[in-house]
Specification:
Layout (H helix, E strand, L loop, with lengths): L16 H4 L6 H7 L4 E12 L17 E2 L5 E5 L5 E11 L3 H9 L11 E10 L1 H11 L5 E8 L6 E9 L11 E6 L2
Parallel strand pairs: 2-7, 3-7
Antiparallel strand pairs: 1-5, 1-8, 3-4, 4-5, 6-7
Length: 186
């Protein structure tokens, strides 16, 4: 057995974003808020991950080149609650030469220089009360980051992206995985 020192120990209090967004206490109320009526026109673009040092114990780095992206998108969840508020429908990879071509190919520039290789995602929110509360959290900059959820599937170390979670800034293990843009389509 090997023990590692956990740096920066101490009492940590996270942001109470659920209260800030007036979200319910009980599971049944969350389930009622999460009922999907359809798709909305609300879109979110985010840096899903780069190679920056994580905030996780041991400070591992993600390697976007080893991540297998889902063929048909993946769930967009709210705050590690288990409740899905939308779907991630597009990914853009910033590997090698493509990292400098993003503004000309896709019509937007990144507001900061990601560390190493990176993956950008875009999601569309559902039409639900919970997705509406999430949109309010995005507008008020309560929810500012995402957390890519992956699982390792093979001996070569490939990680499969299975879900992206919308979180406040005090949570993400990948500090650069932040919201880049939000818009509402007609």
């Amino acid at each position: 057995m090997q023990l590692e020192l956990v740096e920066e120990q101490g009492r940590v209090t996270g942001r109470n974003w659920q209260d800030e967004l007036r979200l319910p206490t009980y599971q049944e109320e969350w389930e009622a808020m999460a009922q999907v009526r359809g798709m909305s026109g609300r879109h979110v673009r985010f840096l899903c991950m780069d190679q920056s040092e994580s905030r996780l114990p041991g400070h591992p780095r993600l390697n976007p080149k080893t991540v297998v992206l889902p063929e048909h998108g993946c769930p967009f969840e709210l705050g590690h609650t288990g409740f899905v508020i939308g779907t991630v429908y597009a990914f853009i990879t910033g590997f090698d030469d493509l990292r400098t071509e993003i503004p000309s190919l896709f019509g937007f520039a990144l507001p900061f220089e990601p560390e190493g290789d990176f993956i950008i995602g875009q999601a569309v929110l559902f039409d639900s009360d919970l997705a509406n509360a999430s949109w309010e959290g995005l507008q008020k900059e309560i929810l500012t980051h995402v957390c890519p959820m992956t699982w390792r599937a093979d001996a070569e170390g490939a990680e499969h992206l299975v879900q992206v979670t919308l979180t406040p800034g005090d949570y993400p293990g990948c500090p650069n995985s932040q919201i880049l843009a939000m818009w509402e389509a007609a």
